[in-house]
Amino acid sequence: QNALFIYNPFSxxxxxxDDIIASICDHLSNYELWKTTGEKDRxxxxxxxxxxxxxxxxxxxxxxxxxxxxxxxEGKKIKLLPIPFGSAxxxxxxxxxxxxxxxxxxxxxxxxxxxxxxxxxxxxxxxLADFGLNAGMIKKFEEKDxxxxxxxxxxxxSSLFEIKPxxxxxxxxxREENVEAKMLIVANGSKYGTGATINPGSRMDDGIFExxxxxxxxxxxxxxxxxxxxxxxxxxxxxxxxxxxxxxxIVNLTRAPFHVDGEIVEPNENVSIRVREDKVKxxxxxxxxx
Length: 290
Known about the structure:
alpha+beta; 290 residues; Rossmann fold; 2 domains; six-stranded mixed beta sheet; Tumour Suppressor Smad4; 32% strand; 18 strands; 28% helix
């Protein structure tokens, strides 16, 4: 296939990234290699896609890099192969691509999925967006300008001691729900980059997504939530609410911190979310999701 390999040299903390890139390129017969710089990457990628004649684009990076490329490929026939180079590779994890070897295996097997894209106030979301605790953790992580999972977990531990419920108004199919939540999750995918399953049984190609409200109160609730996430079943917990929908209006009444696919977004009071009409064809490894 005529391929373009886009990679982010700054993502994650992999000391042998250059060697991995060389190993991946050994499996490609006709390719171009292009790296992001942090300067107008989104515009440059759109131009590359428009001017090139590619059948396949490989993306080595985290969720942000993959999202930039997915936006350029929306509605096109070009296939996208994520390669998990980020600190917390949420989308790749949802697709069963936990290592670069998984990505190559998916390419060789030809396994693809026509993946839904969510529209969040005009911007694309691929797998998970959320309000509250996790977004606050990501914000702390970014403010410290650190990389790697160890730094991410340090930020999460400090956030646990500052947790408080936030207030939301959720508009769903002609009805309105008022909720208090430590976290409100908009889930197209099933897993966070850490591997934690927050939306078990979901599909990324079914035309719907889930709204998940988590409001644990006290140490016992946190233990039950942790156990539920580990066994991939949070149903039955009285501090969890879940709705499936193809569009929702969320009023962020107390301006909870908010992220989309790992990137902090200015916490607007009104957030409109829907499934976009066009999809992106992604390689995946469904055997890793059994």
